[in-house]
Structures are given as structure tokens and as C-alpha cells.
Specification:
The complex is a heterodimer.
Chain A: E1 4-7, E2 10-13, E3 19-25, E4 31-37, E5 43-51, E6 54-57, E7 64-66, E8 76-78, E9 87-94, E10 102-103, E11 107-111
Parallel strand pairs in A: 2-11
Antiparallel strand pairs in A: 1-3, 3-8, 4-5, 4-9, 5-6, 7-8, 9-10, 9-11
Chain B: E1 2-5, E2 10-14, E3 19-21, E4 24-27, E5 31-38, E6 44-50, E7 56-58, E8 64-68, E9 73-78, E10 87-95, E11 102-104, E12 108-113
Parallel strand pairs in B: 2-12
Antiparallel strand pairs in B: 1-4, 3-9, 5-6, 5-10, 7-8, 8-9, 10-11, 10-12
The chains are: A mainly beta, B mainly beta.
Chain lengths: 112, 114
């Protein structure tokens, strides 16, 4: 079945450490996105990529980095520069920007 | 720029009662409109969408939404809710042309009371 896979589902990180969240899709979609979800704030866009080897900052990119070396993969690194990283992270893909998005199951990151 | 307003953060409703979740948007250009549903600790799933044509769109599980251009609204309705409808619902908008960024509302938690 086609879909988006995020791993791990739960992740714990010590303060000062970088951590990478995985996102893989087999839908052959060009566009991929990372969102952060906090209670009462909806979804906020961190980064998006419309094509391999190209990505753009979203609304809250500070403290995050991404890469897009393959069409299927769009990993997100939460760096130690992100001051409040505890959140639910959602990866999504779409045929193109602006079209309906397909979401992964999310990764809940907790800083301990 | 575009924005989405979901005025109700939580909506409690008794089982088998009707419900309306409100969504208003702002955009200087024509838009696509979406409703997504999220169950606890899961990703979002597309519930229904308006791209063009008939302003009334329906989902397979009984929800419907009507695009009202003059009121810039896309309210979600269901005539009779079920316990399994308990979830968080997000309205989203994207411009048909131009930047095409998808903007989400802050979500409305629907709590169905037995």
C-alpha cells in the first residue's frame, strides 16, 4: 500500500542533542512537508520541498534542518538550537504544492 | 497572504445530534478548501475538499461542507454524529495560483457525548 512512514513514533532527547526524524513516502509525490503541532496552535510549517535537492523554509524553520537527496525521503533534524523542541511532528506529501496532503502518523518528540 | 479562522476550539455534542464546525478564510485570490480529521496520536486524514464545481461537497461518512464565497466560509456539518466522530477537525486553504502554501486553522475538537 502507498503511504507515508514516519519513524520513530516516540522519541526522547536530552537537552543539547541533535535528533533526526525520518519520513519516507512511496506515493511518488514531488512535494513534501514538515509540520509542528502544539496544543491550541494548529499546524505550523517548518520546511517544505517541491523537488529533490531543493527545499524552502517555512514559518518556524529556526533550529531545524532538512535534506532532500531522494524523492522518497525528507528527514528532519531538530538541532540543539531549537529552544522548545517538545512537540508532535508531522510529515506530509502532495502531488504538488497546494494540493491535498497525505500525512504520516507523526513522531512525538520529548526533551528530557 | 491567506488565513483560516476556526472560531470554536471545542464543540461538545450529544450522540445522534447535528453538529456544525465553523471555518472562515481570508485570501486575495481563489482558493482550494479542505477539511482534515485527526484522531488522538495520529496524523491527519483528508475528510473532504472543494476544488471547483458544486459548492456542496460530501464525505463517505456523512459529513458535508458548503463553500460560500460571499461569506468566505466552508463550514462542516453532520446531521447525526456518532461516538466515533470524536476527533479534532482542521480546516485548510491553499491558493489556486501563486505561492500555493497550505494554511491550516488551529483545529476544533469535537467531543461526542453518549
Amino acid at each position: 500500500d502507498g503511504g507515508i512512514t514516519q519513524s520513530p513514533k516516540y522519541l526522547f532527547r536530552k537537552e543539547g542533542q541533535n535528533v533526526t526524524l525520518s519520513c519516507e513516502q512511496n506515493l511518488n509525490h514531488d512535494a513534501m512537508y514538515w509540520y509542528r503541532q502544539d496544543p491550541g496552535q494548529g499546524l505550523r510549517l517548518i520546511y517544505y520541498s517541491q523537488i529533490v535537492n531543493d527545499f524552502q523554509k517555512g514559518d518556524i524553520a529556526e533550529g531545524y534542518s532538512v535534506s532532500r537527496e531522494k524523492k522518497e525521503s525528507f528527514p528532519l533534524t531538530v538541532t540543539s538550537a531549537q529552544k522548545n523542541p517538545t512537540a508532535f511532528y508531522l510529515c506530509a506529501s502532495s502531488v504538488d504544492r497546494g494540493y491535498e496532503a497525505f500525512f504520516g502518523q507523526g513522531t512525538r518528540l520529548t526533551v528530557v | 497572504a491567506q488565513s483560516v479562522t476556526q472560531l470554536d476550539s471545542q464543540v461538545p455534542v450529544f450522540e445522534e445530534a447535528p453538529v456544525e464546525l465553523r471555518c472562515n478564510y481570508s485570501s486575495s485570490v481563489s482558493v482550494y478548501l479542505f477539511w482534515y480529521v485527526q484522531y488522538p496520536n495520529q496524523g491527519l486524514q483528508l475528510l473532504l475538499k472543494y476544488l471547483s464545481g458544486s459548492t456542496l461537497v460530501k464525505s463517505i461518512n456523512g459529513f458535508e461542507a458548503e463553500f460560500n464565497k460571499s461569506q468566505t466560509s466552508f463550514h462542516l456539518r453532520k446531521p447525526s454524529v456518532h461516538i466515533s466522530d470524536t476527533a479534532e477537525y482542521f480546516c485548510a486553504v491553499s491558493a489556486i495560483r501563486g505561492y500555493q502554501k497550505v494554511t491550516f486553522g488551529i483545529g476544533t475538537k469535537l467531543q461526542v457525548i453518549p
